[in-house]
Amino acid sequence: MTHPSFSTAGASVAHEVVAHVHVADEPPVSLPAELRYERSDPYAVSLALGTMPTSTVDWVFARGLLSEGTIRPAGTGSILVSPRRGCPGDVVRIVVRSPAGSAVMDIAAPAVTAFLERTARVVPPGEEGRHLDLDRLVTELLADGG
Question: 0.70 cut: is pTM over it?
Answer without folding.
Answer: yes
